[in-house]
Design brief:
The chain is α+β, with helices and mostly antiparallel strands. The chain contains eight helices and 15 strands.
Length: about 350
């Protein structure tokens, strides 16, 4: 029945969107040096990755997430939208209109000032559904809430969600292991994922020139500043005075801090918003990395990680994606601490 509904309503749905639903263009950078040395710390061993991969150059933006919502969440069967996203102070400027039914689907608009700022209020499930949608080629369709009907949209691709929404269901979702990732290399399409903890850590802190690790994801062992106009680099959107630092908007544009990228060329792996990783922690948590605009520089250290419930949404949580490359990108690639458990208060 769900397929019939989708076929009947899809034409009207696309017409209602008009030009609002453009393709999400995800810029990635290659992370080579497969089998790199591990960072052995008092808190664990991190950063060794056996395969080559790519990772988002920037955090996923409100504009990109808005494209996703417009393509699949006319009927928001999996609560991909959170109403506080609409705020233009500590939200991400994404507003919603419409009735949310097949006959009167939701449409989404992104405030122009937030198109290139990171999306927030996304939980772990939202993040991997976005990754599945990218893997599936950014299709357009109406979610029904039936996982069989929604296969090919958000419920399969890189992850099999089968309708998972609760903490228990999201914790039970299997993530592709190294063998599966290796099997995807050389396939007919790229597979998008959340980075594993090691993939995220390597992209942020590993220095391939010295086979060592920086303390901060700004290619530095010195704590970053927070000056948007400083061309010398080593800056991030972190807590300080004055606050916030960008005309009353709490997040900054992705890539705002010039000459502050990691050795692989990623921006904002420190500050702006915390970023989900795939990693499962103990029995009740998924892992976040990178600190946020509400935290001081100590939260950006390689030794710091945050573990929370996967259904959690917050003003300071976003994500970036990684990618197992298709064959056309492989030649480029060949050339080429303190654990914290806390529950977050929603605002």
């Amino acid at each position: 029945m769900g397929n019939v509904i989708r076929m009947v309503c899809l034409a009207a749905f696309v017409a209602a969107l008009g030009s609002a639903a453009s393709a999400a263009d995800i810029a990635t950078v290659p992370v080579g040096n497969a089998g790199n040395s591990v960072d052995s710390t008092p808190y664990g061993r991190f950063g060794r990755v056996e395969n080559e991969y790519s990772i988002g150059k920037y955090e996923v933006t409100a504009g990109q997430y808005g494209d996703f919502l417009n393509k699949v969440a006319g009927v928001d069967a999996y609560d991909l939208y959170y109403t506080t996203m609409s705020r233009t102070d500590f939200g991400s400027g994404i507003s919603r209109a419409g009735g949310g039914t097949a006959g009167d689907p939701y449409t989404y608009a992104v405030d122009p000032a937030f198109v290139n700022r990171p999306v927030n209020y996304v939980n772990w499930g939202d993040s991997i559904r976005f990754a599945n949608w990218l893997t599936n080629g950014q299709p357009t369709g109406l979610l029904t809430g039936d996982p069989d009907d929604d296969a090919g949209l958000t419920e399969d691709g890189s992850y099999d969600l089968n309708g998972a929404m609760s903490d228990a269901e999201l914790l039970a979702v299997s993530v592709p292991d190294a063998t599966q990732r290796a099997a995807w290399v050389g396939g007919s399409k790229p597979y998008y994922l959340l980075p594993s903890d090691d993939e995220w850590y390597k992209a942020a802190y590993y220095n391939p020139g010295t086979d060592s690790y920086f303390d901060y994801p700004t290619s530095s062992d010195t704590a970053p500043g927070r000056d948007m106009d400083d061309a010398s680099g080593n800056n991030a959107n972190i807590y300080g005075d004055p606050y916030p630092i960008d005309s009353g908007k709490h997040t900054t544009l992705v890539g705002e801090f010039q000459n502050s990228e990691s050795p692989y060329g990623t921006f904002d792996q420190g500050g702006n918003v915390w970023e989900w990783t795939e990693t499962f922690h103990y029995t009740s948590y998924r892992r976040l990395r990178g600190g946020s605009l509400y935290d001081d520089d100590s939260f950006l250290l390689a030794s710091f990680r945050l573990n929370i419930s996967p259904s959690e949404r917050s003003y300071d949580i976003g994500f970036r994606v990684s990618k197992v490359p298709e064959p056309a990108t492989m030649a480029i690639l060949v050339l080429g601490g303190i654990g914290i458990l806390r529950r977050r208060r929603k605002q």
